[in-house]
Q: What sequence folds into this?
C-alpha cells in the first residue's frame, strides 16, 4: 500500500500544533498530490479518491478563512479525520480498513464533543459508530475464516455483504439510524467545515465500502432479497429525509437531512443493482452511483460551507448580508442539489431515474417494484427542490458588496458552484462506453452524448455540452435582442397601508407540516413553544437505548469485572484456551 | 340532497325586474328629486339662491311644507362618460366614514330584483382589477392615505365615483372627501339601488 | 332617570361610552382611557408573523385594520384598530331635532334603534308620557328593522361558503322588506321617521301588507330550514369561534345560554304585553349565533303583526325649554344599545352612547384565537358588527 499520502496527512496534523494556516495548506497540497497519483490505483478507488480530494481541497481553502474562529483542536482533529479516510481509501485489507474507520470515527466524535461541550449528542454518536466498527470487525473475521486472508478483494458471501453494509449504513445515516449520527451534526454540534467533511466524505466512505463489496459479490440466490431490503430501506430513508429537510427550521438540520435523503437514493441504486438481471442496467447503475456521489459530495460541501459563512443556524435569525458572488455560488449549488440542469446534480438525478425507468420497462414484478420505487424517488426529488428553494430564497439578499473578511469564503463557494457546471460539461469523460455516443448527423460528435441502454437500442440520450451551450446561447440571444426588460415600479398593495411584514421560513414549509400532521406529531420543547420536530421523538428513543446500554454495560462490568485479580486471571486463561482451540480447528 | 339548492333556485323562476328599461316598481319617496318653493331655512344649507342643491341635501323632509318629493330616482350627475367600460365594469368600494347605509345600498344592486351583473357590473376585491373606485362617507383621518394608496394601485383607465351626500359635501356631519375630481356623483342619503344602478349604467356608456 | 342609576354596578356589562362604563341597570364613571383592542400571544415565537387584513379589502364591508398574528394558518393573536373610520358628531348645544338628524346617521342600518333609544332617553329626561300607539308603533318598526338586519347577517354568512342560491334568495327577501319599509315611512332606512312621542309611519298601509309579511315569513322559514339541512354549510359554522364567557350581549349571549335581551329586562317598550320571551340556545359558536338569528326573524314577524293592531300615528308637540337627565337602553339587532342625555333648556348639554359593536368586536377577537383564517369570515359576520357605531365622538 502506498503509505506516503496518509503520512503526509498525519504530518499536517503535527504541523497543526504549531500553525493553523500551514496545517490547512498541507491538507490542500496533499490532496492535490493525491489527485495526481490516484489514477495509478484501480479505477474504482480512483474516482472516490478524486471526489474526496476535491472536497478536502475546497474545505481546506475555505478553512483558511473560516478556521480563524476556532481553537487548535479543530485543524488537528480534521487532519486526523482526513488521515483516517485516506487510510480507508487506500486500504487493501481489513486490518487497515478497520484502523482507518476507527480513527475517522474517534476524531469525528472528538470534533463534535469538543465544539459545544455537550456530551449527549457526541456520546450517542460514539455508541452507534462503534456498532459500525464492530460489524466490520465481524465481517473481517468471517472473511478470514472463509478465504484465509484479510484482503478485502476476496469473493464476498451474502452474510459478509450484509454485515459490511450494516456498518456502512450507520455511517450513511440510513433509517432508522438517521437520528443517531446526523442529528448531532444537524444541531450544530460541529463547525461548518467539519460538517462539510462529515457529510460529504464520511458518507462517501460508506458508499465506497458497499461499492467495493458489490464488485466482489459471488452470485447467490439470496441476493434478490438483500437487494429488496436495500431498496426498501433506501426508499424509507429517502422519503422521510426529504420531508424532514423541507420542514426543518435549522439550516444545518436541513442540510443534514438532505444528506440522508441522497444516501437513501444511492442505497436504492445499490438495491436495484442487486435485483436487476439485465447486465447493461447493472453497468449503468454502477456509473450512476459514482456520478451521484460526485454531485452529492461537492454540492453538500458547498451547502455546509455556505451555511457556515452566513453565520447562523436558524432561519429565523438569518441576517442577509452576503454579496453577489456568494449568492451566485449558492444558487448554483442549490441548483445542483435540486437535480436541475446544467449542473452535475441534474445529470445524476436523470441517470438514476433512467435506471428505474429502464427496469420498469422490462416489466415483471421487478418492474413493478421499480415503478413504485421510482415514483417515490421522484416525489422526494421534488421535496428536495422545495428545501433547496427555501435555502436560496431566505439566504440571498440584495447586493451589499462583499464583506471584506469573508471574501475568500465567498470565492470558494462560487468556484465550487461553477465547478458543478464545468464537471457537468465534461461528464462524458467519467461515463465510459457503451454509454457514450454521438449522432454526427445532428452535429453531435461522437463522445458528447450520454446514452442509456438496456439492449442494443438506445433508450435515452442526453448531451451535456449542448444543454449548457443552448441555455447560454438562448439567454444571450434574448438579452441581446430585447435588452434589459423595462419594468414599471408599482407599490405593493397591502390593503392600503405600507408593508412592513416579513414572510417567515416557518410559514414557507407550513403547508407540508399541516398536511402530514398525522405522521409528524407535535412536541413541546422546554420553552413551551410548539415544535414540529418529530426527529426528536426518534432521538429520544435512541438516546434512551444508548443510556440503557450504558447502564447494562456498567452493571455487566461491575458484576464480571469486579477488579478482582482472580477473576481476571480466569478470564485470561479462558480466552487463551478459546483462541488455541479455534486456531487448531482452523 | 346535494342539488336541493339548484332545484330550489330554479323553482323560483326569474325575479329580476325590468328596470331601467321600464320605470322603477317601488321607488322610495326619500331620496328622490325635490320640487317646490325654496323658501326654507335648510339645516344643511341645501336651499339657497332659489335653487335646490342636491349635493348638500340629506333628504330629511324638514322642508315638507315648501318642497315635495317627486319619487323621480334620477339623482346623479355624470361628468365624464367612460365608454371604454361598456362591456364590463369592475367596482372597488372604499368606505371612508359612512353610517353603513350607503354600503348596504351598494351591495343591494346585486339582489335579484336589480341584478347589476346582467349589465356587466361586478364587484372586485382588489384595486388592481378595478375600473372604478366608489367613494362613500365623510373624510376621516385614518382613511386618507388608504384612499391615495388605493387610487395609485388602480391601473389605467380608471375613474372615480362619489356616492352619497357624505362623500360629496359632508352631509353636515364632517368634511367631504377632498380627493381628486370625480367622474360621477350619485346624490342621496342613501341613494336607492335604482339610482345607483342607473348611474353606473350611464357611466359605462351603456344603454338601459 | 327612571331606568338607570349612577355609580352602581348592577347587572351585566353592556359597554363603554366616552365617559362611563355601562351595566344593565347602572353607569359608572370611567377615568382611564379605553384599552387597545388586541390579543397578543404570550409566547413570543420567532416563527410568528403579522398578516395584514384590511382596512381596504374586499371581504369586509367597512374598514377595520386587522393585524392577525399567525404562524402559517392558525390565528394566534389579533390586533384591531376600529377607529380607522371615525367621525365626530356635533351634537352638543344643538336642539333635539338637530341632534336627531345626526343620531340616525350614526348607524344607518340600525337607524330606527338608535333614534328610538335616543328619543327614549330624551323622553326619560323630559318626563314625557308616551302614548300607547307610539309604543306599539316603535315596536313594529324595531322588529321590522330587526328582521332586515338579521336577514343581512344570514346572507353575509352564506357568502363565504359559496352558497349562491340561498344568499340571493335572502337578498330578495331583504329587498322586499326594504320596500315595505320605504312604502310605509317614505325612506328605506326609517330616516326622519321617529320623533318625540311620535312615529311617522302609515300603519294602515302596513296592515294591508300583512299577507305579504306572512308569505315572506313562510318563504324565509323554507330557506332557513334548507340551510339547516345543508351539512356542508353547517359544518363550517359549528365549533367555529366558540365563546361562552362574559361579557356577552345580544344574539351572541343568547346563543351561549345567557338570558339577556333588553326587550325583556327593561320596560321601556311593552314587549311583555305581546308575550315576548327571549330565545335561548346553548352552543356559543357561529352556528348558535346563526340559529338564534333565524329563530328571532320568525319571532319578529309575529311581534310585528301582533303589535300592528295597537300601533297608531300620534301627533305631539312639546315645549322647547325643558331640562333634565335621562338614560335608556334598547335591543338593537346586534345587542344592547344605550343612550344618555343631559338637556339644558332644550339644548343638549351632554350625550353618551354605548353601542353593541364595541363589545361584539372584543368578543369576536377572543373567539377567533386558535381558529384558522378560512373560518374568519363566518365568525366575523355572525356577530353583526357595524364599525360605524364604534368610532363616534360627540362634540
A:
Amino acid at each position: 500500500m502506498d503509505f506516503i499520502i496518509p503520512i503526509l496527512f498525519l504530518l499536517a496534523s503535527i504541523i497543526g500544533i504549531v500553525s493553523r494556516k500551514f496545517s490547512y495548506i498541507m491538507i490542500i497540497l496533499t490532496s492535490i498530490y493525491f489527485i495526481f497519483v490516484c489514477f495509478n490505483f484501480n479505477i474504482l478507488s480512483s474516482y472516490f479518491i478524486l471526489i474526496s480530494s476535491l472536497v478536502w481541497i475546497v474545505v481546506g481553502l475555505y478553512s483558511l478563512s473560516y478556521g480563524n474562529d476556532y481553537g487548535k483542536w479543530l485543524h488537528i482533529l480534521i487532519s486526523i479525520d482526513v488521515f483516517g479516510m485516506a487510510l480507508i481509501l487506500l486500504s487493501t485489507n481489513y486490518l487497515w480498513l478497520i484502523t482507518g474507520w476507527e480513527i475517522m470515527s474517534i476524531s469525528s466524535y472528538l470534533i463534535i464533543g469538543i465544539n459545544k461541550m455537550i456530551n449527549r449528542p457526541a456520546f450517542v454518536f460514539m455508541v452507534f459508530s462503534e456498532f459500525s466498527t464492530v460489524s466490520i470487525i465481524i465481517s473481517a473475521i468471517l472473511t478470514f475464516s472463509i478465504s484465509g486472508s484479510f484482503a478485502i478483494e476476496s469473493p464476498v458471501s451474502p452474510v459478509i455483504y450484509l454485515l459490511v453494509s450494516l456498518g456502512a449504513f450507520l455511517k450513511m445515516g440510513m433509517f432508522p439510524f438517521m437520528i443517531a449520527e446526523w442529528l448531532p451534526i444537524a444541531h450544530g454540534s460541529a463547525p461548518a467545515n467539519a460538517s462539510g467533511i462529515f457529510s460529504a466524505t464520511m458518507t462517501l466512505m460508506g458508499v465506497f465500502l458497499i461499492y467495493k463489496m458489490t464488485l466482489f459479490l459471488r452470485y447467490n440466490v439470496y441476493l434478490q432479497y438483500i437487494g429488496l431490503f436495500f431498496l426498501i430501506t433506501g426508499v424509507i430513508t429517502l422519503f422521510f429525509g426529504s420531508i424532514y429537510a423541507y420542514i426543518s427550521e435549522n439550516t444545518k438540520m436541513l442540510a443534514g437531512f438532505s444528506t440522508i435523503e441522497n444516501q437513501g437514493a444511492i442505497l436504492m441504486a445499490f438495491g436495484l443493482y442487486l435485483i436487476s438481471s439485465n447486465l447493461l442496467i447493472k453497468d449503468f447503475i454502477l456509473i450512476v452511483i459514482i456520478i451521484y456521489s460526485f454531485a452529492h459530495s461537492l454540492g453538500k460541501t458547498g451547502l455546509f460551507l455556505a451555511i457556515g459563512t452566513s453565520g447562523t443556524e436558524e432561519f429565523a435569525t438569518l441576517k442577509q448580508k452576503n454579496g453577489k458572488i456568494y449568492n451566485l455560488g449558492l444558487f448554483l449549488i442549490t441548483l445542483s442539489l435540486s437535480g436541475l440542469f446544467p449542473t452535475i446534480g441534474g445529470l445524476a438525478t436523470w441517470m438514476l431515474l433512467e435506471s428505474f425507468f429502464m427496469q420498469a420497462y422490462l416489466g415483471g414484478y421487478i418492474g413493478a417494484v421499480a415503478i413504485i420505487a421510482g415514483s417515490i424517488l421522484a416525489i422526494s426529488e421534488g421535496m428536495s427542490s422545495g428545501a433547496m428553494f427555501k435555502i436560496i430564497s431566505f439566504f440571498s439578499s440584495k447586493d451589499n458588496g462583499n464583506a471584506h473578511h469573508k471574501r475568500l469564503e465567498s470565492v470558494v463557494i462560487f468556484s465550487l458552484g461553477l465547478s458543478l457546471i464545468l464537471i457537468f460539461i465534461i461528464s462524458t469523460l467519467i461515463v465510459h462506453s457503451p454509454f457514450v455516443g454521438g449522432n454526427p448527423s445532428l452535429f453531435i460528435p461522437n463522445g458528447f452524448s450520454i446514452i442509456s441502454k438496456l439492449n442494443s437500442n438506445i433508450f435515452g440520450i442526453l448531451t451535456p455540452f449542448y444543454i449548457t451551450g443552448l441555455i447560454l446561447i438562448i439567454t444571450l440571444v434574448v438579452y441581446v435582442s430585447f435588452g434589459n426588460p423595462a419594468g414599471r415600479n408599482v407599490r405593493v398593495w397591502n390593503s392600503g397601508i405600507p408593508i412592513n411584514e416579513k414572510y417567515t421560513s416557518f410559514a414557507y414549509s407550513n403547508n407540508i407540516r399541516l398536511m402530514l400532521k398525522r405522521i409528524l406529531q407535535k412536541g413541546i420543547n422546554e420553552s413551551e413553544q410548539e415544535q414540529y420536530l418529530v426527529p426528536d421523538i426518534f432521538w429520544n428513543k435512541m438516546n434512551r437505548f444508548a443510556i440503557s446500554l450504558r447502564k447494562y454495560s456498567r452493571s455487566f462490568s461491575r458484576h464480571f469485572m469486579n477488579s478482582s485479580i482472580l477473576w481476571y486471571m480466569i478470564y485470561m486463561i479462558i480466552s487463551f484456551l478459546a483462541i488455541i482451540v479455534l486456531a487448531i480447528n482452523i | 340532497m346535494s342539488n336541493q339548492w339548484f332545484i330550489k333556485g330554479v323553482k323560483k323562476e326569474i325575479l329580476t325586474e325590468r328596470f331601467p328599461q321600464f320605470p322603477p316598481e317601488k321607488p322610495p319617496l326619500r331620496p328622490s328629486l325635490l320640487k317646490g318653493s325654496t323658501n326654507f331655512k335648510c339645516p344643511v344649507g341645501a336651499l339657497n339662491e332659489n335653487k335646490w342643491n342636491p349635493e348638500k341635501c340629506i333628504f330629511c323632509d324638514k322642508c315638507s311644507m315648501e318642497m315635495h318629493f317627486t319619487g323621480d330616482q334620477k339623482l346623479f350627475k355624470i361628468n365624464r362618460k367612460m365608454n371604454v367600460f361598456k362591456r364590463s365594469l369592475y367596482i372597488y368600494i372604499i368606505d371612508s366614514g359612512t353610517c353603513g347605509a350607503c354600503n348596504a345600498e351598494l351591495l343591494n344592486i346585486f339582489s335579484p330584483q336589480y341584478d347589476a351583473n346582467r349589465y356587466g357590473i361586478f364587484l372586485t376585491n382588489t384595486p388592481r382589477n378595478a375600473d372604478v373606485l366608489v367613494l362613500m362617507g365623510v373624510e376621516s383621518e385614518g382613511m386618507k392615505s388608504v384612499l391615495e394608496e388605493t387610487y395609485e394601485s388602480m391601473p389605467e383607465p380608471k375613474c372615480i365615483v362619489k356616492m352619497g351626500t357624505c362623500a360629496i359635501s359632508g352631509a353636515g356631519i364632517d368634511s367631504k372627501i377632498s380627493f381628486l375630481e370625480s367622474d360621477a356623483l350619485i346624490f342621496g342619503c342613501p341613494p336607492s339601488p335604482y339610482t345607483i344602478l342607473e348611474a353606473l349604467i350611464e357611466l359605462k356608456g351603456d344603454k338601459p | 332617570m327612571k331606568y338607570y342609576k349612577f355609580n352602581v354596578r348592577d347587572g351585566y356589562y353592556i359597554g363603554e361610552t366616552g365617559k362611563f362604563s355601562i351595566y344593565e341597570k347602572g353607569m359608572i364613571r370611567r377615568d382611564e382611557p379605553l384599552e387597545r383592542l388586541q390579543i397578543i400571544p404570550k409566547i413570543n415565537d420567532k416563527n410568528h408573523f403579522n398578516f395584514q387584513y384590511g382596512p381596504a379589502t374586499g371581504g369586509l364591508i367597512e374598514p377595520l385594520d386587522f393585524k392577525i398574528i399567525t404562524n402559517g394558518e392558525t390565528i394566534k393573536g389579533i390586533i384591531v384598530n376600529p377607529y380607522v373610520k371615525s367621525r365626530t358628531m356635533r351634537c352638543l348645544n344643538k336642539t333635539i331635532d338637530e341632534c336627531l338628524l345626526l343620531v340616525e346617521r350614526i348607524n344607518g342600518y340600525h337607524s330606527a334603534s338608535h333614534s328610538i333609544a335616543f328619543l327614549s332617553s330624551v323622553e326619560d329626561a323630559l318626563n314625557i308620557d308616551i302614548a300607547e300607539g307610539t309604543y306599539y308603533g316603535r315596536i313594529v318598526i324595531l322588529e321590522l328593522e330587526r328582521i332586515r338586519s338579521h336577514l343581512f347577517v344570514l346572507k353575509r354568512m352564506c357568502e363565504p361558503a359559496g352558497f349562491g342560491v340561498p344568499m340571493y334568495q335572502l337578498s330578495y327577501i331583504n329587498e322586499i322588506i326594504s320596500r315595505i319599509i320605504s312604502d310605509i315611512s317614505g325612506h328605506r332606512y326609517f330616516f326622519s321617521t321617529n320623533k318625540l312621542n311620535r312615529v311617522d309611519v302609515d300603519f294602515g298601509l302596513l296592515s294591508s301588507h300583512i299577507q305579504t309579511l306572512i308569505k315572506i315569513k313562510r318563504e324565509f322559514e323554507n330557506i332557513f330550514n334548507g340551510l339547516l339541512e345543508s351539512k356542508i354549510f353547517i359544518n363550517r359554522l359549528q365549533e367555529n369561534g366558540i365563546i361562552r364567557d362574559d361579557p356577552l350581549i345580544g344574539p351572541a349571549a343568547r346563543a351561549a345560554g345567557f338570558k339577556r335581551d333588553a326587550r325583556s329586562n327593561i320596560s321601556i317598550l311593552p314587549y311583555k304585553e305581546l308575550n315576548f320571551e327571549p330565545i335561548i340556545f346553548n352552543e356559543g359558536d357561529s352556528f348558535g349565533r346563526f340559529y338564534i338569528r333565524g329563530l328571532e326573524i320568525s319571532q319578529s314577524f309575529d311581534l310585528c303583526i301582533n303589535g300592528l293592531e295597537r300601533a297608531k300615528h300620534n301627533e305631539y308637540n312639546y315645549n322647547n325649554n325643558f331640562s333634565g337627565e335621562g338614560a335608556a337602553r334598547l335591543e338593537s339587532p346586534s345587542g344592547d344599545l344605550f343612550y344618555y342625555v343631559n338637556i339644558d333648556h332644550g339644548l343638549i348639554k351632554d350625550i353618551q352612547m354605548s353601542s353593541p359593536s364595541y363589545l361584539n368586536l372584543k368578543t369576536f377577537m377572543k373567539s377567533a384565537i386558535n381558529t384558522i383564517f378560512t373560518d374568519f369570515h363566518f365568525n366575523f359576520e355572525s356577530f353583526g358588527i357595524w364599525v360605524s357605531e364604534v368610532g363616534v365622538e360627540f362634540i
The CA atoms of residues 113 and 122 of chain A lie 5 Å apart.
